[in-house]
Design goal:
Layout (H helix, E strand, L loop, with lengths): L3 H4 L3 E4 L3 H12 L7 E5 L13 E4 L12 E4 L7 H5 L4 E2 L1 H8 L3 E6 L4 H14 L4 E4 L6 H4 L9 E5 L2 H4 L6 E6 L7 H4 L2 H9 L5 E7 H7 L10 E4 L5 E3 L3 E4 L2 E5 L8 H16 L4 H10 L8 E6 L2 E5 L6 H10 L4 E7 L8 H8 L5 E5 L2 H8 L8 E4 L3 H11 L5 E4 L12 H16 L1
Parallel strand pairs: 1-2, 1-4, 2-3, 4-5, 6-8, 6-9, 7-8, 9-10, 10-11, 16-20, 17-18, 17-20, 18-19
Antiparallel strand pairs: 12-13, 13-14, 15-16
Helix pairs in contact: 5-11, 5-12, 16-17
Length: about 450
């Protein structure tokens, strides 16, 4: 890893949250002097733990002098406003730094829903096959906290990429997987066209691309002949399933009854891993063992426990109407109580409301502010449901215990983020699980 240009540059770090602090620690660890680094954040910066000599600028004018820096580290989730676009050639994200400096085998994965599950499955597959592999999540620890060894030519990395990370990413990697696509984060990207363009960047500069066949057909311009490096999976491809089993090039691999994951969307996710195993020459035995033993990732349609004859499911990761519909489809008509709502990002809830009307759901726990929007859409049928509007997770769960029928499901799948009350989906899911156990035990 060559950091010579950083050692002679004036560096700014935009936003001093989890990723900003990670960037600072990485630079200091690798010999960059604190006097070369300036922290920029609109919020007041706590300076007590910072090295002596480091400059911090906060307040309304924190972006006023960006042109004076040589390199500006930007948190991926910070949108490209007009001020940043003026200095776009100086901007750097952690994931761009990773791809600039890691020259070995990278498997990159993105989707509107399912990328964390697929990333985790891909990591498990490579681990089981004996590859030296590192897992880099999109949510949680920043990339530079997860990957420290840039210089081992035998190292593999499986990395999950968000549309924010992909927006301007330039990379060169081994295999990319582009999976399910539906409208999310349109407030950040502006429109569906921009969102799709960001997602599609994962296909650029890859040795091999794996794509869900329906995503290719719906969002791209299908060609008479596929590009040589593009592999399609799912329906009418070599990597597919029927009503009872999965197949690779017509060879049966395993029965659907052997899979722990729920839902059609997870079956689609598995087909990507089947194709990945084929392209990496991983044996069918290792692939089948990986899939059979893979359990749901925390907060992703995860069965918390059964208390008082009620099954509680934590699907806190579902922060869009489409993902909550997928959760309801996965659990069939067993859902009796549904937890919905959060930040009002002006999502179109019409399809979700139609799905609720067709379901056996009797109880709705609605979280402000989008919970009120959903209630309004259900207005003509609202008297068919037991409804509670609340901000309290304890009250949510207590209501579920009081109203959910025995041997039915209480499902947390809010269809919108909950940033107005919770830091992130993980905090929301953790609180849900905590109260389920506390009130049920």
């Amino acid at each position: 890893m060559n950091l010579s240009k950083y050692q002679s540059s004036k560096i700014a770090i935009l936003w001093f949250g989890r990723e900003g602090k990670s960037t600072l620690n990485f630079l200091l660890k690798h010999g960059i002097s604190p006097i070369q680094i300036t922290i920029l954040d609109q919020k007041e910066i706590e300076k007590s733990d910072l090295p002596e000599g480091m400059v911090c600028i906060s307040g309304q004018d924190y972006l006023s002098d960006l042109d004076s820096y040589d390199i500006i580290f930007k948190t991926a989730g910070m949108s490209y406003n007009s001020t940043l676009l003026v200095v776009k050639d100086k901007l750097m994200t952690q994931v761009q730094f990773f791809f600039d400096n890691f020259r070995w085998k990278v498997i990159a994965i993105t989707a509107s829903k399912g990328k964390t599950t697929m990333t985790s499955m891909a990591y498990s597959l490579l681990q089981n096959a004996g590859f030296p592999v590192i897992l880099a999540w999109n949510i949680g620890k920043p990339v530079l906290d997860q990957i420290s060894n840039f210089d081992d030519p035998d190292q593999y990395v499986v990395i999950e990429l968000s549309s924010f990370m992909l927006e301007t990413l330039v990379k060169k990697n081994f295999i990319s997987i582009l999976w399910s696509i539906f409208p999310v984060h349109l407030d950040w990207h502006g429109n569906m066209e921009n969102y799709l363009r960001a997602k599609a960047r994962i296909l650029l500069w890859s040795e091999t691309n794996i794509m869900l066949s329906s995503s290719y057909e719906h969002f791209f311009s299908p060609q008479p002949a596929l590009p040589e490096n593009l592999v399609l999976t799912w329906k009418n491809t070599p990597y597919t399933r029927d009503k009872s089993a999965f197949y690779s090039s017509s060879k049966k691999l395993f029965d659907l009854s052997e899979i722990q994951l729920l839902g059609e969307h997870n079956l689609r996710n598995i087909s990507a891993i089947v194709a990945l195993a084929s392209k990496m020459w991983i044996s069918d035995e290792i692939l089948v063992d990986t899939i059979r033993n893979f359990a749901p990732v925390r907060h992703r349609l995860q069965k918390v426990w059964t208390f008082r004859w009620i099954d509680f499911y934590d699907d806190a990761i579902s922060t869009s109407p489409f993902s909550s519909i997928a959760a309801l489809d996965a659990l069939w008509d067993q859902v009796d109580t549904l937890f919905l709502g959060g930040v009002d990002w002006r999502y179109d809830f019409s399809a979700l409301v139609d799905r609720i009307k067709k379901s056996q759901i009797r109880n709705l726990v609605l979280f402000p502010d989008s919970g009120q929007t959903i209630a309004t859409l259900l207005a003509s049928d609202l008297d068919k449901y037991n409804v509670i509007h609340t901000r309290s997770m304890e009250e949510w769960v207590r209501f579920a215990y009081d109203h959910t029928s025995p041997w039915k499901i209480a499902l947390l799948s809010t269809a919108t983020p909950s940033f107005s009350l919770r830091k992130d989906f993980e905090e929301k899911g953790d609180l849900f699980q905590e109260w389920v156990i506390k009130l049920g035990g």
